[in-house]
Design brief:
Keywords: NAD, Oxidoreductase. This protein has 13 helices and 13 strands. With 316 residues, the protein is of the alpha/beta class.
């Protein structure tokens, strides 16, 4: 049986599938050609990440399709319910990228509190002519230790983020309408661990209390953070979004950054991907990455092998 990994798959995933008797095709097929390619090559499994969309048109056009797999968590690029109604298995890998995304959250947090995103832009331009000026400009950093991190969505990625925050000595609070409380186990290199319970609170109280806010929610119909929410936050709050574009009102965010209400933002995802607004890209208070939350070698290995084992158990 043939597997089309249209957005790529790790070497470990390919090896595991081949060992299970599958032929893996990693040719990148254009969106409008996916259905034709699947039919012409008798493909049984289509694997995607965030680039390729598997909508009703492809599902209807490909009667031989048995599995649609998403390497990662969010399934908003797949018509999941419709696929299932046609007897197609839909799989994903919710646990595989948690650590990678959580580490990127902290990359943005550290960048924000020590101005790394801005100093990395300005040091090459002025480092040799205005060293003392830049030193003064970036002199008012703050520590993360002892501050309160508000986590919106305390699922797998939220919990991985909480563990790192606790390890840094931060206070962690969370808001999640589906998870009333969760035990978070922080494990150390020598086998020791500590467990703490995080009880979910209201979004409003989280916005009021948190020094930093990080979002870990699926795609939404409306904004989670807009003008009203920004108004009740602490002055100088830092906001990170490594979840989904469209959960923060970017116009309201830029306004809050310009006024100083928000001290910095870290964005891995955007309302208009893959063409984010210039007002976001050029803002010196925003730390920017191009949707790379799960893009580590370790996460891609885990995603590949996890997809392979699910496919083999369904079709093997």
């Amino acid at each position: 049986m043939k597997v089309l990994a249209n957005d790529g798959i790790s070497k470990s995933g390919i090896l595991a599938l081949e060992k299970g008797g599958f032929e893996v095709i990693t040719t990148k097929v254009a969106q409008e050609q996916v259905a034709n390619f699947v039919n012409e090559n008798n493909v049984s499994v289509v694997l995607v990440r965030s680039a390729t969309k598997v909508r009703k048109d492809i599902i209807d056009a490909c009667p031989g399709l048995k599995i649609i797999g998403r390497g990662g968590v969010g399934m908003d690029n797949i018509d999941v319910d419709y696929a299932k109604s046609k007897g197609i298995h839909v799989i994903n890998t919710p646990a595989s990228s948690s650590e990678s995304v959580a580490e990127l959250v902290f990359a943005h947090l550290f960048s924000g509190v020590r101005f790394l995103h801005d100093s990395n832009r300005n040091m090459p331009l002025e480092g040799d002519t205005n060293f003392d000026g830049l030193k003064k400009a970036y002199a008012n950093g703050i520590e993360l230790r002892g501050k309160t991190l508000g986590i919106v969505g305390i699922g797998r990625i939220g919990q991985a983020t909480a563990k790192m925050a606790l390890g840094l000595g931060m206070k962690v609070i969370a808001a999640d309408s589906f998870i009333p409380q969760v035990d978070v186990k922080v494990e150390f290199f020598d086998g020791q661990s500590i467990t703490t319970t995080i009880v979910s609170q209201s979004l409003e109280s989280l916005f009021k209390e948190a020094d930093f806010i990080t979002l870990h929610v699926p795609a939404q119909n409306g904004y989670i953070i807009g003008e009203k929410e920004l108004a009740i936050m602490k002055d100088g709050v830092g906001i990170v979004n490594c979840a989904r574009g469209g959960v923060i009102d970017e116009v309201a965010l830029v306004k809050a950054l310009d006024s100083g209400k928000v001290s910095f933002a870290g964005l891995d995802v955007f309302e208009n991907e893959p063409t984010p607004e210039m007002a976001i890209l050029m803002n010196h208070k925003i730390s920017l990455t191009p949707h790379i939350g799960a893009a580590t070698g370790e996460a891609q290995d885990r995603i590949g092998t996890e997809l392979a084992s699910q496919i083999i158990s369904i079709l093997g």
